[in-house]
Amino acid sequence: MTALATRPKLAVWKFSSCDGCQLSLLDCEDELLAIAEGIQIAYFPEATSGEVEGPYDVSLVEGSVTTPHDLERIQEIRAQSGLLVTIGACATSGGIQALRNFADIREWIPLVYASPEFISTLETSTPIADHVRVDLELRGCPISKAQLVETVSALLNARRPRLPSTSVCME
Ligand code: SF4
C-alpha cells in the first residue's frame, strides 16, 4: 500500500442499495471528526452537496451493479480511484436484490412496475468485484461502524486495517 498524499481525497459512491451503509458512515460523526482534519471529503452526496473533482485517493462503494449505467459508472470510478473499498453486503455479494439472479427478471418487471417500458435493468445484481479490481471488502448488512472507522483511519495512515477474519455470526 503506497503512502497517501497530504489531505487525501475520500469519495463515497452509491449503486443499487438502501443507503444503510452510507448512514453507518454518517453515524460515525464523532469518530470521523477525530480524523477529519487529515481527510478531504471530496464526493459524498448523502452528506454534502459540495464536490471536488477526482482523482480520489480512497473510494468507498456501496451497492451492487444492476443497470447498464452502473456498468459504465463503476469502470469510471475505478479509473479515478487509488484504493477502492466496497462496503456492505450489496457491494460485496449483490445484496438482497441478487435474489433476482434466480428468476427471470423479464417476468417480474411487469408485475412490479406500472410502466415497465421505463425500466432499464440488467438480468442480474452482481458484486462490484465482478466488474473491477477491489482493494478491500467490508462485509455486513449494514457494515460495522468500528470496522469502517478502523479502515478509514488505516488507509489515511497508509497501514493495513486490522479487521476480524471471521463474520459477526462467529461471536
Ligand atoms: Fe442497505 Fe444492507 Fe445494502 Fe448496506 S448492505 S446498503 S445496509 S441493504
List keywords for this structure.
five-stranded parallel sheet; alpha/beta; 171 residues; binds iron/sulfur cluster
Q: Can you walk through the features of this model?
A:
30% of the residues lie in helices and 16% in strands. The longest helix is centred in the middle third of the chain and has 12 residues, at 68-79. By secondary structure, it is of the alpha/beta class. Strands 2-1-3-4-5 form a five-stranded parallel beta sheet, with helices on both faces. Mean pLDDT is 90; it is low at 1-5. The two termini are 30 Å apart. The chain is built from six helices and five strands; from the N terminus they run βααββαβααβα. The protein binds iron/sulfur cluster. The site of iron/sulfur cluster has 11 residues, from helix 1 and helix 4. Iron/sulfur cluster binds next to helix 1 and helix 4.
What small molecules are bound in this structure? Answer: iron/sulfur cluster
**Share of residues in helices:** 25-40%
Beta content comes to 15-25%
Strands of the widest sheet, in order across it, are 2-1-3-4-5
Write down the Rg: 17 Å
The helix/strand order is EHHEEHEHHEH
What do the pLDDT scores average to?
90
Strand tally, please?
Answer: 5
Give the uncertain stretches in residue-range form: 1-5
What structural category do the secondary elements indicate? alpha/beta
Count of separate DSSP helical elements: 6
Major sheet attributes: 5 strands, parallel
- What is the general shape? globular
